[in-house]
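lol ok so funny story. i was supposed to be doing the assay writeup but got distracted and ended up predicting the structure for this chain instead. priorities right. anyway since i did it might as well share w the group, maybe its usefull for someone
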Amino acid sequence: VAAEDSRQETAERRQRSEQYKSQQVAKLVAEVREFGDDIIDYNELAGIYDFPIDKFQRLAIQAFLRGSSVVVSAPTSSGKTLIAEAAAVATVARGRRLFYTTPLKALSNQKFREFRSTFGDHNVGLLTGDSAINKDAQILIMTTEILRNMLYQSVGMSASDGRLFEVDVIVLDEVHYLSDISRGTVWEETVIYCPKEVQLICLSATVANPDELAGWIGQIHGKTELVTSSKRPVPLTWHFSKKFALLPLLDGKGKKMNRKLRMSHVQNISSPKSEFYYVKGKRKVRTNKNEQGNRSPLDISKQVQLSKHEVTNMRRSQVPLIRETLSQLWENDMLPAIWFIFSRRGCDAAVEYIEDCRLLHDCEASEVELELRRFRMQYPDAVRENAVKGLLRGVAAHHAGCLPLWKSFIEELFQRGLVKVVFATETLAAGINMPARTAVISSLSKRIDAGRQLLTPNNLFQMAGRAGRRGIDTVGHSVLVQTTNEGPEECCDVIFAGLEPLVSQFTASYGMVLNLLAGSKVTHKQKESGDVKAKRSGRTLEEARKLVEQSFGNYVGSNVMVAAKEELERIQKDIQHLSSEITDEFIDRKCRKELSEEDYAEISLLQNKLKEEKKIRNELKKRMELERMAAWKTQLEEFESGHLPFMCLQYKDKDSVHHTIPAVFIGSLSSFDDQKIASMVWKMILLVQASRKLIARDNIFAHHTMLL
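and the output, tada:
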């Protein structure tokens, strides 16, 4: 009874808040239009809500009112949609238009319902691959691909022309999808093609490099301000579900793994006695099949050291059934919950597996039955008959295999507290408003075409972030489940790995190039017939190339190069500065300071000796040059030809690299016999060898003979 009263109180409070907001929006819009004043103050927008606005929300709204584009990076479920909602109020009040884009049709449908509730049916439209409702509305909600395709025809045009007529603001929700391998290019293209006079509001989950995203948008689009927040409105607690217990995943400080979860030891954990509602409404006690004398096989008095093979087997034995984890949630008052399973078939199978578990009270079950009857009368073809039994017990599935109407119905029941557990694929993590007390992640890896892929920290935090209902829960619970391949160690590795940066996935496809070259549609009216015809004004290859070169990847890459060059210049300046300081006097002072008198005297003696050796070497070099010149003079006097004896030879090596070497011309081959050639070559070799003995060993000479 207390739980039912709390649920009804929460629903009534939410309904009153929505009614208040809707009334305040209508009042503000009417006042602005009546007085014809487009200037809207922040306090007017803040007055729409019956609760205080967070700091990051205030900063983002103020940046928008200053005319800047805004990038907002904040945790999941922190209230980023409020910023877009406030921008929509200001835009509608000014008589202009706003486009709101989402990555999913389900999210677009939900935003469509929410904005209609706030702004009225006539002010909100929807444009997806499945629906086209009120396309000329002031607030038009669509998938990002729809907007990108619209922008193909408007690149280079102002917002007053083409498909973006009277559009002042574009909201890109879930903009962190820019890193998605298959779809990320859509978000980059949308930013690149968007007219510069349109304000962008980019809403992102927390990522490692929001500053780079804001910098890129500022460079290619216009003035952009960054607003970040790392604070969750509802704190998040991590848990780990094993077969016989639900334990904290982290220690008290949240800095490392809970010692009790170490798989190298068997902990003193006993089988729980969980109470559960079943179909007949009786409470039953779930006991372990191996239980004897109320003792679990793991109920031992001391820790036992295990081998690696035993740890592997123990990990397998610790994998809980869905019923067992659900029992743990029930015992700890952690429902309602979103349970993430990475396949549609897995979600449906989970619902079927626990559909005998009764999670609803009688009054709640009656309310669900009444709502289901109404839905069936209105949309008879949209009912999922194989899911009705589970729904009447408080369990449902939510994935792309369900019809949009059925998913909307499940979302509404979950928001009202009439569905206690929703088994969903990871798409539900993408901003769909289904606040839960607990988020359960069934596995740390998901199956892809190439095998199994471990979740990234961003994916994990996105799903875990659905836990914790603002204004209802004091803490949100994220439960990770033991699997055959992943234990608490792997979970902690992902959690402590840190957030990943946004990475460009921009790709130049054939379709993109053709659309860019085709250009925008231009209509003209013929004078004689009065017919209106449309044709495309094509773009040049150079214009298309410039657009493509504005990708986020190019910006980050160029920034990296600039930063690297700046760092190199700084290092070179430091080297020059140090070189100017390290003089002979500096070294002498340093030696006198650091060395003893005996050591310093010995070093001074060696330095003087080195100077004398260098002096002798220089004198030997000069003597060698004189002797070489005398020897060459003797050789040249024997030549009777009139050719100059000095020349340069050029050749290519095996790598086709050009080389130039100095040479002495002796004569043509026809003027020498074999004996004379051998004699001349031998004299030159002896001369060079004699020269080598007179110079330092670190100088290397080479001699060549060429017959012409």
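Residues 438 and 471 are 15 Å apart (CA to CA). The longest helix spans residues 597-637.
back to the writeup now i swear
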